[in-house]
Each structure stands twice: as C-alpha cells, then as structure tokens.
Protein 1
Amino acid sequence: ETGVTQSPTHLIKTRGQQVTLRCSSQSGHNTVSWYQQALGQGPQFIFQYYREEENGRGNFPPRFSGLQFPNYSSELNVNALELDDSALYLCASSLFGRLTDTQYFGPGTRLTVL
Amino acid sequence: ELKVEQNPLFLSMQEGKNYTIYCNYSTTSDRLYWYRQDPGKSLESLFVLLSNGAVKQEGRLMASLDTKARLSTLHITAAVHDLSATYFCAVTAQETSGSRLTFGEGTQLTVNP
C-alpha cells in the first residue's frame, strides 16, 4: 500500500509569486484535503476535493485554489504570495463515506516566502 | 464556529510518570481524532473515537471520549522518552460536509530521563 506523497519537500519563493504544490493520495482513497500549518500552531483546513470537485472550504482567500485529477492526486495553487503564507502545507487523503474516515497525512511541503 | 481547545499546551514530565492531556470542543461532533507530530515531520494518526464513552488504548497511550461534556482525554501511562512529541486532537463538525478537521493548538510533550 502506497502512502500519501507530496512534492516538493521544500520551496522558497518571493512575495507576489505563484506556487503549485502536489499531492498523491494513498492507494484506495478518493478524497484529498489540504491544510496549512504555521509554526507552533495546529493545522488549518484550506479545502477538500472529492470526485474532482471542491467539497468544503475553510477561511482562505480565493488566491488559494486547487484541483483534483481522475487518479485522485491533487494540486494546491497559491497566487500573489504573501509573507504570512510561509508555513508547512499538509495534504491528507481519506475514503469518503467510510464511517471512521481517518485522514492520513503526507510528509508536507515547507514553503518559505521572502 | 467549531473551536477546539487543548490543555496544557506545554508539558514536561519525567519518565515513569502518568499524565493526562485534555481536549475540549465547542459544538456537537461525530468524530474525534488524536494525532502525533514529531518535530519537522507530518501527522501520525493515533486514535479515532466515534461514540460517547469510547475508549481506545495503544501501548502507553489511552484515549477516551465524553460527548456530553464535549471532552476527550489522552492519558499517558509510565511515560518514556520516545513519547516526546506534539499531540493534537481534531474534530469534525456534524453540520459540515465532508470530513473537515478542526485542530486544537497542540500539546508539546517532553519526557525527561
């Protein structure tokens, strides 16, 4: 069974640039959720994708957008980067509709905005 | 808005001692999760609790859920250094679609020899 993978591991960008982060879900899972974790804080929900459509969104501006592909992998895009976007971005996959619906997290992408 | 509070936020304890981490949440939830995070690493799933009175144990960790009090506890028995990590509780709100997790701030546990 393949776990959740993310790329890249680390990324450095400057303010105003755009970034794309990638996630491959765990084998057998059909749902991908994205979270932002600032240093010393708990993860904050950005959005979730199921059947290639957004299925819930947290309090993040529209410059945070995403995609899910037919193979259930996903991308997170952030436009017009701001300093406060510096964080660990975590992708989690799960099987929608299953009672426990445990989300399994990938290793994360550390984004630094200068 | 669903809020999750953990206490303590920082916990330093000696090996062999017992302690409890508390997790309170503000609205009705149908699932509660506990995760562990090592420094610079991702989140590892520990427990999922589904119903009132649920208790789960794995090694030196035991989690319980009281849905009426909106409270979960993570009890550590005879702590060892390997348990040093940050522990998060997270809940899903019944009124939201999908499985959006709302996390607490985390409890940073340090076990000293």
Note: The mean pLDDT of chain A is 92.
Protein 2
Amino acid sequence: DAKTTQPPSMDCAEGRAANLPCNHSTISGNEYVYWYRQIHSQGPQYIIHGLKNNETNEMASLIITEDRKSSTLILPHATLRDTAVYYCIRRSRGANNLFFGTGTRLTVIP
Amino acid sequence: DGGITQSPKYLFRKEGQNVTLSCEQNLNHDAMYWYRQDPGQGLRLIYYSQIVNDFQKGDIAEGYSVSREKKESFPLTVTSAQKNPTAFYLCASSLSPSYEQYFGPGTRLTVT
C-alpha cells in the first residue's frame, strides 16, 4: 500500500520546469518523502528525499508543505531524457521496503 | 566505476528449473535487496539483507531463496516452487537500512 496519491500522467515542454505533485496526507512524523524515477525497462533511479525542509540537489528540488501533507518534485529544465515514471514514496527511517505505487508518467515534449 | 550490476539482462528458462540471478555491488554497501516488478505494477520486496550472513524475508519470499556470503554479492534463486516466476527482477543496495536504495539495471526472467 503506497499511501501516496499522484496524477497518472503529465506532459511538460522541453526546457520548461516540470512540477510533479504528490499527496501524502496521512504521513507520520518519522516518515520521509522519497522520489524515484524509472525509465522504461530500467532500474529505478533515486532522485531526492526530505523530511520537513525543502531539498535541492543536482537533479531536482523537493518542496514539502509545512503540514507535510503534500510535496512537489521540481525538475527545473526538463529534457527529453527526463521522460519516465516518477514515484513518490513514504518511508520510515530504517524501513527496508520501498512501496512503489503507480507513479506519474511524465512525458517531455520537444 | 561504482555501481550495481545484474546479469544477465534477459534470462529464459523452462518451467520446473531453478535459476539464479546475479547481483553484485562495489559501493561498500551493507544492505542489499531483491524486488520483483510485474507489468504496470509497483515493486514488491522479496528478500533483504542488512549485513553479511544475514537475510530476511520480504513480502513475497515464497518460492525464492537467497544467500549473502560476501558483502558485494546477493544472488537470488528462483525455484520451481515459485508459481509465477516471469517478471522483472531488481536488485538494490544501500549504505545501511537508513539510507536511500540504489538499484541495478534489472534482469527480465521469462519462464515457459
């Protein structure tokens, strides 16, 4: 049970920012929000994770609302290679399992 | 070049045969995992190992077996007892269970 809600699909124009939303309204205080993506027939790729504060790395930014009930993954300048299924996952620290739901299929359009 | 390797990328077997999938990592990670992915679905945890010589069952361990004799290696055997073995198998590792998991490229197993 993934316990996160994501739109099934989104399109984004190449070069524009892609904003992928995730709802996790029942998240508990010790659960982190993780984002992975999976390009067709490849292993999932870790993108970023956070607990309360906004996070940024070389791939993306993660914005978590103050009440922690939702978050947004931002790819600042989407390229065609960013076309993939993006998964938002809740995970307790030290938990072994990653519950991948159905994710959001992002298509970057030339 | 550090990473996780899985071999082979595609594997074909006849029903009733056991088959072993390879997973090797040179990231010096303590924890390793095996997941299964079926078409259009999320990942399901088969087995995991937090340290050498120790492993635990995940959500769908029936019909599978693993070993963890070396830190770098975590092979998965799909036995003939696994009723629906055809799937995409993914191996992952993490520095420890508290850290993010990194995945290998996967092995697509087809049993006929």
Note: The longest strand of chain B covers residues 43-51.
